[in-house]
Amino acid sequence: MKKILTPFFGLLALLFTNNVSAQTSYKAMMDDMSYNFYEVVEAAEAYFAEHGTGKGSGFKGYQRWVNENESKYYPTGVRSNVNHYLPTESYKQISNQFPNYKHKTSFDDGWNELGPWDANNVTSHYSPGIGRIETFWVDTTNLDRMFVGSRSGGFWKTTNGGTDWTNTTDFLVASGVFNIGVNPSNTNNIQIAVQNGGNGYSHGIYTSTDGGDNWTLSNFNPTALGWGGLGDNEKVYKISYHPTIANKLFIGTSKGLYVSNDNLSTYSLVTSGSIRDIEFHPTKSNVMYIYNYSTGRNNVHRSSNTGLSFTASSTITGNNNAKGHIAVTPQKPDNVYFASNNGVWSSVNEGSSFIFMANPEESCQGFAVSDVDEKNMIYGYVDTEASTNGGFAWNQVTKWSVQDAAYVHADIRAAECYQGIFYMGTDGYFVKSTDNGTTWTILNDGTAVREFYAVGVNQGNSSIAMAGSQDNGTSIINENGWVEWNGGDGMEALALPLNDLWMIGSWQYGTRNITVDGGYTRGGTGNPVGGFLNAS
Fold first, then answer.
1. How far is CA 364 from CA 29, 255, 431, in A?
2. Are 377 and 368 in contact (CB under 8 A)?
3. What CA–CA distances, in Å, run from 91 to 100, 172, 199, 404?
4. Could you give the percent of the chain with pLDDT greater than 70?
């Protein structure tokens, strides 16, 4: 296994280790600031030495965490003395100094947004995309009105089916919007979970009363809660309004389930745990379901008193502690569906017990059941699978590396069905399917949500640059716009100042590719000594 730490860092790891128990999850340690940085590294490297570093192992996420945090806590590794409110305090100081600067249009001069707003000019790229869409909402009374939240590109809205998009959150304290809750009693009232883009840690919930044009910090914020902010690793996983009880909403967090009966003027903690999913019975207003990742991974918890208390289902046999997703449908209101990497289960008795249906070939990060025909379902992660017989048989309907009518980009982040139309947010796009997953339409051209790791600027021509991005590869901007050149995770990029056509891009593990024609083709560079010669 490739070591991230230098020998000196490795020595520090030994100095600061406290004989961490092998039973302690390195992931839990990453989120617990009382653990020294080097303790986490030691536990993680022991875990990957035993379990491997292949796809789905979590190794890539761990590497990103080390890359982000290693320099922050050097040389001591101590993480418990961080000011959680530093970004908020700095933001307030700047806002007070420049009170009129609330939107990009406030600036007569200065920054010029360059995009990309789409990924439609593809050369040698594979799996192109704009950027990661974490959450979305579709207005069932007007399907042309939609909201999306991106991991570090904020909140975007459209009122014409995706022809035009507007971003309104550039000047919030953090740039990630991981969850959207819309009040069914007044759909201009919106709640968004604002979080750090890189890690998803919460800065609280912001509210809008004008359809997402303007935002104010709600009472659900780090100061009032006593948790959240920079340095605190707590998260908001779900914001769900009750479908029929006005102004009642539930918030699933890493600290437990909260409920508010007055649209977040006040709220209270209902139950502890890590609440990852929330669903409501389609016809019984008092029945709801939650998924508690920390205390019941093999159960769905049901409430018959609108969230005052919950009872666990019988064990979902065969799930084996895999992270689950729950779904309901008005076509079978007493049914509850559960999906994980280990299969799909259904309950016909309001979540009291579950029966196994099938185990699709793909892993599961997104799952949805049709709201007009319960036999239609979608499920997947890297690729998407669909069922047309209620979950007992599944067929692959998308392929991440093939750009055809079924292309949706790899890595599903969210999936829902509105009026028989399936929608998904992925690491590249916000998409919809009107034929149960057979073909998909990209909806979010016009959203600038690309997450760039590094930019290489041509020192001889300021209009040319190459940039590597999260999950959407390496792209080139020139006088004519953007070129999608290379797939995967794009990292460092170099542009040769003496020749506008020569550029080198790289992947996260150090492999390099070169273009000598401005991005129309690419080739391997070989080793560092012979790279340019081998590419000619």
1. 25, 24, 17
2. yes
3. 14, 8, 19, 44
4. 91
